[in-house]
Amino acid sequence: MMRMRTGWRAAGVTAALVATCGAFGQTPTLAPAENVIHVEISGLRNDKGQMLCALFSSAEAFPKKADKAVVRLTAKIADRHAVCEFTGVMPGTYAVSVVHDENSNGKLDTNFIGMPREGVGASNDAKGHMGPPKFSAASFRYEGGRLDLKIHVNYL
């Protein structure tokens, strides 16, 4: 599968979703524009900050290595709700991770033992046990066209 490159990657800047700074951006793609993964995000505790969204095609990177994501983007929050829309996606197997970046610092804030201090979520509403969810639990097959997903954000 050909990997889409992010604006960050083209600029030589990489970052992990857990330890990133700066803005996420969606990049040009080679798939038809009508190929869309539309993600409705609910369960936000407030409208502060922004949503960080990442689309992954590999278990190796999910969900912590945002620099390995196929596409990363940010979304605005309104009425404790956000939408991330990944366009031009090639058919394949993917997983989505989202972070409610309440302070807009471009990363998931954690406490001293690594537990999230901000809201997190994944496709299939996958949840981890003593850590983040597994790619196998969050992954889905995308055949092309429009796919609508719903993710509920959780706070610890």
Walk me through this protein's architecture.
The protein has about 160 residues and is mostly beta strands. It has one domain: Immunoglobulins (Immunoglobulin-like). The protein is about 5% helix and about 35% strand. It is built from two helices and nine strands; from the N terminus they run H-E-E-E-E-E-E-E-H-E-E. Strands 2, 3, 6, 7 and 8 form a five-stranded antiparallel beta sheet that branches. Strand 4 and strand 5 form a beta hairpin. The radius of gyration is 14 Å and the shape is globular.
Average pLDDT over all residues: 84
What is the name of the CATH class?
Mainly Beta
Task: Name the CATH homologous superfamily.
Answer: Immunoglobulins
Count of individual helical segments: 2
Looking at CATH, which topology would you report? Immunoglobulin-like
Shape: globular
Residues in helices, as a percent range? under 10%
Q: Structural class of the helices, strands and pairings?
A: mainly beta
CATH architecture: Sandwich
Rg calc: 14 Å
Give, in order, the helices and strands.
HEEEEEEEHEE
Short structural description:
By secondary structure, the chain is mainly beta. It is 5% helix and 33% strand.
